[in-house]
Design brief:
By secondary structure, this protein is mainly α. It has helices at about 5-15, 30-35, 40-50, 70-75, 75-85, 90-110, 115-125, 135-150, 155-165, 170-175, 180-195, 200-220, and strands at about 55-60, 65. It contains twelve helices and two strands, in the order αααββααααααααα. Keywords: DNA-binding, Transcription, Transcription regulation.
Length: about 220
């Protein structure tokens, strides 16, 4: 194992086993390198790598701390990597969404309250009778975010949000090129919300699957 990878693994082990907790300050570089049996250079590289992943927080003139380790912060690195993907990998993002979002819809059905459902209905109604492609896509992004948030699992919500951004251009292109795509999107959103309103988690799961699978199928067939 390369020495930098070894250093990363040893610091990770300290965090996983509770020797270092969120908010803790790491020992001085000289002391930690002796404690872990590592060179100061390899330790320094490991700290730099873990800071890029938002696991560690390097504060100039103060020291290095373990980050809060909340899911949204840790998944920022994933969002960055997803954003770098080429357009031909957008299909993979939709395929992952097709796994995660039906589950989120089912969870949200059990947890969502009247105020949140009313807010979602207001969001859908705000489109009016003749929305533009940009308006439907913006509404779509917000709709999916709110359902993921209502599921009550912050990591699930962060994952779904991170996969949503790279698919925006595909959603806009579908709205422009596929006849009836906008109307279908709005209707499927309504069906998902109706299922959630009636407390039918499996229907909400099924409608969300239909909704995302439709985009995935179009993407597979689109030139």
């Amino acid at each position: 194992m390369p020495v930098t990878d070894e250093a990363i693994e040893k610091i990770k082990e300290m965090i996983v086993t509770g020797q270092l907790r969120p908010g803790d300050r790491l020992p001085r570089e000289a002391d930690l390198s002796v404690q872990l049996g590592l060179s100061r250079n390899s330790l320094r590289e490991a700290v730099r790598a873990l800071s890029l992943l938002n696991v560690l927080d390097v504060r100039q003139g103060d020291g290095t701390y373990v980050s809060p380790l909340d899911s949204s912060r840790l998944l920022e690195a994933l969002t960055f990597l997803v954003d770098l993907h080429r357009d031909d990998s957008v299909l993979e993002s939709f395929q992952v969404r097709a796994i995660l979002e039906p589950a989120a819809a089912a969870l949200a059905t059990h947890r969502i309250d009247l105020a949140e459902r009313a807010s979602l209905r207001t969001l859908l109604d705000s489109l009016g009778s003749a929305p533009t492609v940009d308006e439907v896509v913006a509404n779509d992004i917000e709709f999916h975010h709110r359902i993921a948030a209502a599921a009550g699992n912050t990591m699930l919500c962060s994952l779904i949000d991170s996969l949503s951004g790279p698919t925006v251009r595909a959603r806009i292109w579908r709205g422009i090129t596929q006849e009836g795509a906008l109307e279908r999107t709005v209707a499927e959103h309504g069906a998902i919300l109706d299922a959630m309103g009636s407390g039918d988690a499996e229907a909400a799961r099924a409608w969300m699957t239909v909704h995302i699978t439709g985009v995935t199928r179009w993407l597979q067939e689109a030139p």
